[in-house]
Amino acid sequence: MVSRQTTAGQPIAYAASAPKYSTRIASVVRSPLYQHTLGAAVESRIGRVLLLTGVPLLWLVMMHLGPIYQMLKISLMSHYPVQQGVDWHYTLANYAIFFQESIYFTPLIKSFVFATAATAATLIVVYPVAYYVAKVVRPEGRSRALLLLLVPFWAGELIRTFSVIMLLANRGGLNVLLREIGWIDRPIPMLYTSFSLGFGLVYLICLYMLLPLYSAIEKIPVQYMDAAADLGAGPFTRFLRIILPLSKDGIVSGCSLVFLTCIGVFATPMLLGGPNTVLFPETISGFFHGASNKWPVGAAFALIMLVTALFTAAIFMRLVGGKKRSAF
Amino acid sequence: MSDTSTTTRRKALQLFGIGAAALTVPNIIRPRPAWAESGVLNVTTYDKFLPQDFVEKFQKDTGIEVRIRLTDDQGKQYNLLTAEGANPSTDIVTVAGHRYSQFISSKLLQPLDTGKISNWKNLNTAYQDAPWARVDGNLWGLPILAGYEGLARNVDYIKEAPSWEIMFDPQYKGQTSYIVSDFMTIVMQYLGHDGDFVSYADKRDVAQKATNEARDFLIKNKDMVRKYYDAGSEVQQMFINEDIYLAHSWSGPAAKLIMEGHPIQLSVPKEGTFGFCYTLNVVNNAPNAENAYKLLDAILANPEVGAAMTRQSGYSSTMNGVGDLLNDREKLASTLPQEQVDRIIFFSSVNRDMKNELIDRATAEVKAA
Amino acid sequence: MRGIFSDGPRTALTAFYWAFLLYLLLPLTLMMAMSFKDASFVAFPIGNWTLDWYGKVMQDKQFLDACLYSVMIAAASMVAATTLGTWIAMLIVAEGIRGRMIIFALACLPAVVPGMISAISLRIFISTIDMPTGTAAIILGHTVHAVPFVVVMALTRLRSMPGNLVDAARDLGADNVVAFFRVTLPYLGPALLGGMIFCVLLSIDDFVRTFFLGGYRPTLPMLIFAKVQGGMSPEINAMATIVLVVTAAVGLYAEYMTRRARTR
Asked: CA-to-CA distance for A109 and B304, rounded, in angstroms?
C-alpha cells in the first residue's frame, strides 16, 4: 500500500539515518517518565523477558483460550444447558459420536478437500495480480492499484454474495446479456453449482491471499531481478529461481489464512452452492441451530475441527515455510 | 551471555512502545448494565415489526424506553438466551411456531398472565386459547402472526399443484427447493405417516421407521432439488430469478412476493400441511417483565401494529381489525380458499423431543448423502 | 523491464490485473444498478428507475447511526488488534523462544472457530469474568477475531526480516525503542497496513458476535441482515452503494493527499 523504500538490499540507508531520530522520539526517550518506567524495566533481563512475553501470553491465554475452554467444558457434558433437577455428568460420548458415524465424518473430509482446492485456486488466480501491483506498477501508482482492488470488499460479505447471485442467476446479468445478443434461447443454470461456488468463493476470499502476497513480493529488491536478467535468465527462470522463493512467506501466510477461513468459518459462500456442497461447519451449526438441544455434540465437533485444521496448517507451514528463521 | 540471549534482549526491547493501550480496552468501562434499568424495555424482534411511530407513542405515554435488538433468525435468539442463562438481557423475544415448545422446555420463557393484558379480547378468538399454545397448563406467548408451510409455484410455468407429488415430478427436475427439516415432516405426511409425531408418543420404533422412509425418499430424489435453503429471502430470490418454479415455503416469504405482484401462487396440497404462529413472549427472569406486559397490551390496542407485521412478514395477523387496514392485494396474498384452510393442522406441542431429535438427525443424513 | 522478452509477461500481467478487477467490480455494478429499481425486490429487468431509495436511506436515522457506530467499533478493534497482533508476532519470531508452534497455533485459534460458536463462547466467557455486554464487549469480541489475521500478516515480513537491519541501527547508537519504531515498524509497514484492513473488514462484516455481545444499538451488518430477512429490497443495495462510494472516495482522497505530501 504505502510504497516505502524498505528493501532488504538497502540496510545502509537505514543505518545512516537511524541516529538522527526525530526530536519527538528523542524527547520521549530522554523524559524522566520513560527513564524510570520502561527505561528501567529494560535494564534487567527479567524486565525484558516480561516485556516481550507478558502481554502476548496473557492475551493468548485469557482471550484465545478462555472462551474455547468454555466450549471444551460444554463438549464434555452430557447435557447443556443444565436444568434444575436434571442429572448431568462429564463424558466423552460427544466425541465418540463423530468417529462412529460416517454422516459426520464425510463432511469433514469434504471440507478439507474443498478448502485445499479453494486455497490452491485462489493462490493461482491472485498471485499474478499481487505480483503486478507490487512489481510492475510504478511505486507511486501502487496504492491506487491496490485501492481499486479493495473497493468491492467494503460492501460487506452478504451484499457481495447477493451480487454474485444477481450476476449468475437464471434471470441474472449474464444470462440476460447472453439472451439479448442471441447466443442462447434458454437460460443456462449457473447458480447453485460447483462453478458458482468456486466463482463466489474466490470472489469473497481473494483479499486474504492478495494482501499477504503483496506485502511479501513488495519487499523483493528490484536489483535481484535486474541482476538475474543481466546474467541472462529469462522471465520464467527469474520467476522460479528468485521471485517464488523470496515470496514464500507471503504464500505461506496467504494460504494459511484462506485455508483456515474456508474450513471453519465461511458460511456465506454456501448460499451459492448446490445440494451437494454441505460442509462441516454446516454440520456443526446444525447442532446449534437445530430444534433439538445438542450444544455438547456441536461443541465437541467444533473442537475436533479446530484441532485438525490447525494441525494441517502447521504441517503445511513446516513443509513450505521450513528452514532457518521461520523455525516452525 | 550467549549470542542467543542478546538477541532475545534486543527483540524484547523492540517491543517496547507498542500496545499498552490495547489491554485497557476491555474492562475499563463498567457502566451499570443498561438492560437492568427500571424505565427500560428490551425487545428482540424482526425489522419493522414494531412501527417507529407506535414505539415513539408508547415511550411518550409510559415513559419507558424501548430498546430493540433486531434479529434475523430463530437459532440466534435461542442460543443467546441459553448462553445468558439466569441473567437474560432481553425482556421480550419473538418466537416462531416450530420453536415455541423448544423455548418452553428449555425454561427460557415465563408463563403468560393474560389477566395483565386488558386488550386480550382484541385477539382473534381462535388464538385466545388455542390447544397448541397451552403447554403444561399455561399459555406462554401472545400470538401475533399465523402462517403455514405451503407449496409455492410460479404460475407462468405451473398452472396447478394439487399434490406434494409435483415436487418429485421429473418434469421439474432441478427446479425445486425446500428447507430439508421442514419438508421432511411434509414428506412423512405425503407417505402416509404422522409428520408431527403426535401419535408416536410411546412408539419410538414406528417413528424411526417412518422418518427413515421419508429420509430415504428425499435422498433418492436428491437430483430433483436445485438447492436446500434456510432463509425466506433465499427462496424469494430463487423465485424472482426463475432459478426454481416450485418450492416448499413458509407462507410469509411467498405471500410477500404475491403482494408485490410476482406470478407466484401458494396452496395447501391435498395431503395437508402444518400451521404455526409467531408469538411475542416474556423471557424467564426478564429484568423488566412489568414493562413487557405494558407493551403487549399496547400492541393489542393498536391494529396498525398488526398490519405493519403482516406487511413486513407476509403472514396473516391474529388480531381483530387488521384486515380493514390492508389493501386488496395484501389481503389476497394471505387468504386461502376454505377447503385448503381446513387442511392445515397446527403444530402440536406434545412429543417434541422425539420429533426434534429424529428430524434433525435425518436432516443431517439427507444433506450429507 | 528490458528487451523483448520481458514485455510479453508484462502485458499479460497488466491484462490479467484488469480482467481480475473487472471480475471484482462487475457483480457490484449490477448490485449498484439495482439500487435504482422501483420495486420491493431486486431483479432483472430493472424497468422503472427511481432515486427514492436513496432519499429514504439518507433520511434513515437508524442507518446513519449504525454506520457511525460500526466505524467506531471497527476503529477501536483495529487499534487493539494491530497492537496485540504485532506484539504476538514479535514473540513468535523472537529467538530463544520455546514452543513457537504452540504459540502460533494459539494465536490462530480464533480464526478457525465458526462465528456462532465463537459468539456463544465469548458470551459465556464475559459473564464468567463479570463483564457487561455492550460496546466494550463487542470491541473485545472483534479484537479477538482479528488478532490472528494481524499475526499472520506481520509474519509475512518479520520472518524474513534481515537481522542486520536492527543490528546496524543499534551499532550506530540507536536505542532499541528507536530501532523498533524507526526500523522494524517501517519494514513491517505494508504488512501491518494489510492487517489493519483485515481488522476493519472483519469488524464491519461481523454480526453474530455483535448480536451476542451487545446488539441494542445496531451496527451496519446487523441492520442489513435484519433487513434482508424481510426480503432483498433495493433499499439494502442503496445502503451498500452509499457505503462503497464513501469508502472509495475517502480511500482515493487519502491516497491522493499522501502522494502529494510525498512529492513535495
From this structure: 52
Q: Is residue A65 part of a domain?
A: no
Tell me the nearest-neighbour CA distance from C192 into chain B, angstroms. 13
Which residues have C-beta within 8 Å of that of residue B277, sequence separation ≥ 6?
Answer: B97, B100, B127, B130, B132, B133, B143, B144, B145, B146, B147, B318, B346
Mutation target to probe the C interface, by most C beta carbons within 10 A, among A3, A4, A5, A6 is A6
The pTM score is 0.86
Crossing angle of helices C135-158 and C115-128, in 10° steps, is 120
- CA A263 to CA A7: how far, in whole Å? 35
Flag whether A251 is in a domain: yes
Phi (first) and psi of residue C239, to 5 degrees: -60, -50
Most C CBs within 10 Å, among B23, B25, B45, to test the C interface: B25
pLDDT in tens, chain A (328 residues): 334 443 443 443 444 444 445 566 667 767 777 777 766 666 666 777 777 788 889 999 989 998 999 889 989 988 777 776 777 888 888 898 888 887 888 888 888 888 899 899 999 999 999 999 998 888 888 888 888 898 888 888 888 888 999 899 888 888 888 888 888 888 888 888 888 888 888 898 899 999 999 988 988 888 887 787 777 777 778 788 888 888 888 898 899 889 988 887 666 777 888 887 777 877 888 888 776 667 888 899 989 988 888 888 888 877 776 543 443 3
Would you state the CATH architecture of domain B149-274+343-368? Answer: 3-Layer(aba) Sandwich (3.40)
| Residue B173 touches partner A, C-beta closer than 8 Å | no
Total structural domains within chain A: 1
Task: Estimate to the nearest angstrom the gap between the alpha carbon of B350 and the chain centroid.
Answer: 19
In a domain, A294, yes or no: yes
Provide, as residue numbers in chain C, all residues whose Cβ is less than 8 Å from the Cβ of B250: none
Q: Which three cell numbers stand for residue C230?
A: 424481510
Which three three-digit cell numbers place residue B335?
387468504
Cα distances (angstroms) measured from residue A216 to each of A209, C227, C253: 11, 40, 26
Using DSSP's 3-state secondary structure scheme, residue C207 falls into: coil
Start-end ranges of CATH 3.40.190.10 in chain B?
Answer: 34-146+276-338, 149-274+343-368
DSSP helix/strand/coil, B41: strand
Q: C231 and B256: CB-CB below 8 Å? A: yes
Per-residue buried b or exposed e for C171-209, using 16+ beta carbons within 10 Å of the residue's own CB: eeebbbbbbbbbbbebbbbbbbbbbbbbbbbbbbbbbbb
Is the residue at A73 inside a domain? no
Query: Domain B34-146+276-338, what architecture?
Result: 3-Layer(aba) Sandwich (3.40)
Q: Residue A192 sits in which domain range? A: 94-321
Q: Which three cell numbers stand for residue B59?
A: 415511550
Sequence letter at residue B244: I
Closest CA to B279 of B122, B186, B140, B141: B141
